[in-house]
Amino acid sequence: IWHDFALALWFTQDAVAAVQNFWNALTVNPLHTKSLNNLGCAQGLGAAFGLLPTESLRSGVESLRNAIHLDQTNALYWR
What we know:
70% of the residues lie in helices and 0% in strands. It has 79 residues and is an all-alpha fold. The longest helix has 16 residues, at 33-48. It is globular and about 30 Å long. The two termini are 21 Å apart.
């Protein structure tokens, strides 16, 4: 539920709330690779679009790295 809510928030351009809810999803299931992947995408794109602080870009790369480490097939989940 948290993952889907985070996606909905992202697509309404509420990057801060989206990131928070991806973290909520990971609190429930830290191995949910789709949440890790989408967290990384939201952090990186949020920083690139000026919706999040620039430091979020580094966090996004780390989130994506963790997702790929857990499941390499989810690397392009957002295509």
